[in-house]
Each structure stands twice: as structure tokens, then as C-alpha cells.
Give the backbone structure.
Amino acid sequence: MIYQRVTEPLATSTLGFVETVRTLDLMGYFPKAMEDLDARITEILLTREVRDGAALLIGCLRTLDAVQVASAMSLRDDRPPW
């Protein structure tokens, strides 16, 4: 199998940044983790649009998962009109 480098921009929600840094902290000492993430990954802010979208998602998602899904959906051109 041949692997290719990701060429699309990377993005995650503000929660994703916090979750990643906290997980890294459990694994070891990474004092520049947030700075490194900030330099390489686009942050999707927790806006009213994302908040409201997360609240309106249908299904059995936990709260933080709903925020992550709504954050990702906010990047789509054909996103729902929350």
C-alpha cells in the first residue's frame, strides 16, 4: 500500500485543540504542543452557529461529540441552515 501525504488543510474545533494538548500531557511533557498545533491546524471557533448546530443535531451524540460534528459541518459549503 502506498501512503500519500495529506495536502488538504487540517482543521479542528477549539475543543479538539484542548483535547489533544490534555491527552499529550497524560503521555509526557510537550510544552509547545498548543503552539505547534496553532501553527499547523486551523481552529474552528465555538461560535453561536456551531453551538446552535450542535444543540440541534439529531441522534445520540454526547455533548462534546455534537460540538465536534457541528464544527466540522460548519466548514461545508452545503451545510444545513441552523
About this structure: Residues 11-73 form one domain. DSSP finds four helices and two strands in the chain.
